[in-house]
Automatic annotation (TrEMBL):
InterPro entries the UniProt entry points to: GH, GH_1_N_CS, Glyco_hydro_1, Glyco_hydro_1_AS
A molecular function (GO) term: 6-phospho-beta-glucosidase activity
Name listed for the protein in its UniProt record: 6-phospho-beta-glucosidase
GO terms (BP aspect): carbohydrate catabolic process
């Protein structure tokens, strides 16, 4: 059997986000963020995708899974010990902005929040695990959403800069790898998460969305610049949801359409953050949709100065496109759109499984940017079953991860520079899109269920032992 050679020092590990694991949503003076008011269940995806967002209405009707989540807030020591047992070299986590600035617009940071992450980071270092920290992972302070309209407002750039300065200052000796905004491009399909507002009205789809993006790009560039100044030995990346777009067939109309979709979804945000400038194809897009960005003096220079050091990206699926879709076809695609690909199988949630797509993504990104790449999310959401003897035999997850790791091995042979792999949801947690616990990704099972019941006990799945061996052999034993 073929073996793969991963570089020395490859950052094997797992990935999480504060709002999906921590719980303790009002502890340590934490303020409310967008994720705190998103209900679990069917309603959630509609809200994410655009059904609008009314905190007051939802407040008493629903179960809010992230309020307790998996209680990492109190159990981080136990969890990190398990990550260490698997041999993690890196752990991707995010800092909840609202633990540090509860409303987002205060002048001084909240010491309790800072202390919490001091403890988590110290615990990771105790085991030699390198933290990889996302500055903002779908956790915008609710106050900024309600009072300022989220990233619509340029003022939010100043608040973000203050937040970032506070955490760089505090953790400069503890964190070497940073990322700015999680899946920044995802707001094109799920705006509430990233931009802090929904785009229900057609007229909101263009001007406000892209103006808000401009503000985020400026904020990202400021963070990169600050990071380089304040923590010279660090590296800071962007984070893109990358899903290579395939044309359904060789009809040039469809090929062209797939290319345009790929430009907008996969490359627009990445180009601005990696090359430090708006790509040429956006000029036409802006013109056709009557978008006129308000760009302040110095913004374009700042974008250049704030180009990232590496490209972090999540990879779950590819997307197959066709210019004209029937109604039926249009509803059969992945969460991010497209139509069903007849060559692929899908997960129980309809996410198409395509390991070769990961090799394609790595090649595409490396050919375009020649910057180090970091797969910071990839994994299989599945229903897991505990056997009578207590074991959890998740061989489907092992197969999935194994094929994707092989695809990375192939891409490395293709010449791609790859820094690491942090598989998503190394421990079961709240699902971002469903808000449920039954969509599990972990190597570690957490006894917690969709109705909120469960003991929160942690158990090692079969994949725990498999991944441990993968890491110990630096990817040789798959
Ligand atoms: C990514 C997000 C994560 C995450 C993952 C899996 O888009 O960055 O926060 O949860 O997808 O998605 P889900 O939990 O919906 O299965």
């Amino acid at each position: 059997m073929k073996t793969y050679s991963f570089p020395k020092g490859f950052l094997w590990g797992g990935a999480t986000a504060a709002n999906q694991i921590e719980g303790g949503f009002q502890e340590g003076n934490k303020g409310l963020n967008v994720a705190d008011v998103l209900p679990g269940g069917k309603e959630r995806l509609n809200i994410l995708m655009n059904a609008g967002f009314d905190f007051e209405i939802h407040q008493d009707q629903y179960y809010y899974p992230n309020h307790e989540a998996i209680d990492f807030y109190h159990r981080y020591q136990e969890d990190i010990r398990l990550f260490a047992e698997m041999g993690f070299k890196a752990f991707r986590m995010s800092i909840a902005w609202t633990r540090i600035f509860p409303n987002g617009d205060e002048l001084e940071p909240n010491e309790d929040g800072l202390i919490f992450y001091d403890r988590v980071l110290d615990e990771l270092h105790k085991y030699g695990i390198e933290p990889v920290v996302t500055l903002s992972h779908y956790e915008m302070p609710l106050h900024l959403v309600k009072e300022y309209g989220g990233w619509r407002s340029r003022q939010v750039v100043t608040f973000f800069e203050r937040y970032v300065k506070a955490i760089f200052n505090r953790y400069k000796n503890k964190v070497k790898y940073w990322m700015t905004f999680n899946e920044i491009n995802s707001a094109l399909v799920m705006p509430i998460n990233g931009l802090g507002f929904s785009i229900q009205k057609e007229e909101d789809k263009y001007q406000p969305t892209f103006q808000a993006y401009h503000h985020q790009f400026v904020a990202s560039a400021l963070a990169v610049k600050l990071c380089h100044e304040m923590i010279p030995h660090s590296q800071i990346g962007c984070m893109i949801l990358f899903a290579p777009v395939y044309s359904f067939d060789s009809n040039p109309e469809n090929v062209m359409y797939a290319l345009q979709e790929e430009h907008l979804f996969n490359y627009f945000c990445a180009d601005v953050q990696v090359r430090g400038e708006y790509p040429a194809f956006m000029k036409r897009y802006f013109k056709e949709h009557q978008i006129e960005l308000e760009i302040q003096d110095g913004d374009l220079e700042l974008l250049k100065e704030g180009a990232v050091d590496y490209i972090g990206f999540s990879y779950y699926m590819s997307r197959t496109e066709k210019k004209v879709k029937t109604k039926e076809e249009a509803t059969q695609g992945n969460i991010i759109g497209g139509i069903r690909n007849p060559f692929l199988h899908a997960s129980d949630w309809g996410w198409e499984i395509d390991p070769i797509g990961l090799r394609i993504s790595l090649n595409k990104l490396y050919n375009r940017y020649q910057k180090p790449l970091f797969v910071v999310e990839n994994g299989l959401g599945a229903y897991d079953k505990t056997e009578e003897d207590g074991t959890i035999n998740d061989d489907y997850r092992i197969d999935y991860l194994c094929e994707h790791i092989k695809a990375m091995g192939e891409a490395i042979e293709d010449g791609v520079e790859l820094m690491g792999y942090t598989s998503w949801g190394c421990i079961d947690m709240v699902s971002m899109s469903t808000g449920e616990f039954s969509k599990r990704y972990g190597f570690i099972y957490v006894d917690k269920h969709d109705d909120g019941s469960g003991t929160l006990e942690r158990k090692k799945k079969q994949s725990f032992f498999w991944y441990k061996d993968v890491i110990a052999s630096n990817g040789q034993n798959l």
